[in-house]
Amino acid sequence: MTIENGVRVIAGTMILVSAALVYFVSPWWLLFTAFIGLSLIQSAFTGFCPPTLLLRKLGFKEGASSCGVK
């Protein structure tokens, strides 16, 4: 799995967890969902994607179009 795919898995998992927390715990967890969305938007413009640091240390491979920091 590449870093780009790993980032997608992490973001998708966080969104699903956030949706479950909104449903079962409190609507305030929508702020967590908004944070995830804003992080994805900023990474599209800046190229900096914090999860790539973790995934690189875990040994994930760089993809052809990865959002990693060079």
Can you walk through the features of this model?
The protein has 70 residues and is mostly helical. The protein has one domain (3-57). Helices cover 67% and strands 0% of the residues. The protein contains 3 helices and no strands. The longest helix has 22 residues, at 3-24. It starts with a helix and ends in a 13-residue tail after the last helix.
Describe the structure concisely for a colleague:
It contains 3 helices and no strands. With 70 residues, the protein is mostly helical.
Mind sketching the topology for me?
Blueprint: H1 3-24, H2 30-46, H3 50-57
Helix pairs in contact: 1-2, 1-3
Gap from first CA to last CA = 19 Å
Indicate the low-confidence ranges by residue numbers. Answer: none
- Strand residue content: under 5%
Label the structural class: mainly alpha
Roughly how much helix do the residues carry, as a percent range? 55-70%
Please give the domain count: 1
Question: Which terms would index this structure?
Answer:
70 residues, mainly alpha, 3 helices, 0% strand, elongated
